[in-house]
Amino acid sequence: MSLRHAVLGLLADRTASGYDLMKLFDSSLANVWPATQSQVYGELGKLAGAGLLEVAAEGPRGRKEYAITESGLAELRSWLIDTRPDRTRRSETLLRVFFLGVLSRVEAITYLSLEADRAAAEHEELEGLEASVDWGDDQISVYGRLALAYGLRLTAMQQEWAEWARGQVAARLPAD
Amino acid sequence: MSLRHAVLGLLADRTASGYDLMKLFDSSLANVWPATQSQVYGELGKLAGAGLLEVAAEGPRGRKEYAITESGLAELRSWLIDTRPDRTRRSETLLRVFFLGVLSRVEAITYLSLEADRAAAEHEELEGLEASVDWGDDQISVYGRLALAYGLRLTAMQQEWAEWARGQVAARLPAD
DNA sequence: CTCTGACATGTCGAGAGTGGAAGGTCAAGG
DNA sequence: CCTTGACCTTCCACTCTCGACATGTCAGAG
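YS: structure for the whole thing
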């Protein structure tokens, strides 16, 4: 049920069309809550039907500019304050770690090395993002920066862990 | 498509029934790849139909003991070696951070404090798990320990981040 | 002997997410 | 004038996940 709140949250900042929203999902929210076109447009329709959004203006090419309503804002606030986030995490990377035993030691070490490289690359990418984005003082910028800092810490931790884990596996006597 | 490989991976270690598998999902894999009964039994059926698993024995109460086949093992190995993990991550916690601007400063700080507490609690829980599990030398134990170490590092990082973020928000002049 | 609790498998429907196809408008450049 | 590319929305078919429900067996306690 988070997609609906992601849409509400983006529209709390400024009005936008489905097309605009897609760009926001692909840039700022890409690493946090990805969404496809079909999802976004579908959700806009439902939200408007439920009165949480309204069509503020219609532009050329059938463009519909959506704006959040009072009850939409209330719903967003209540989601933020009254409900606890769902934290079911699925990590395919970690799932694979459980089964590394079916591989040879060398193959397992390779897997962990690749994971360390990937984390390092992602870390650099986020650093690039941090440098390139021009951070304003609007809500999304201020708090988006906090989210980016999380990503930086996460990828750094992942790299350290993968290197440590590789060492752990390598240290076991080659008694496979 | 990871559920199928999770099942194959568990059965690579030892044979098991759907019921046994559920217990493994609820204990070892709970934090990495949760699954429900209906999913597990459904997947077992499909996997057996595809020849990646076979019913090794039938026990009382209709119990079916599944074992991985040669082609199942090949599929598992190829998944581990030839394919890169899907790393689409969704974090409702982080999504909320983006929208903290619609709340008052105090409410935002409360949110981040709760998040720090939650991470700390989860960290302790994992430490308890580490102490209570009796770690053998089997594959799942050896590599499961690496996964647990990841969880420990993750929750520690989350707590630090949340406390830092709370400080960041608090430091801004109360000009809301 | 009967009750209870662990063992054990299965079906169904609703909702979320994925990927792509289809259809149409407008502005600007060649 | 005509093509191209950006703009913009809608629909569909599919898989995955969740939670509840249905069905039944077996061992041990009382």
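YS: worth flagging: The mean pLDDT of chain A is 93.
IM: good catch. Also Residues 92-171 of chain A form one domain.
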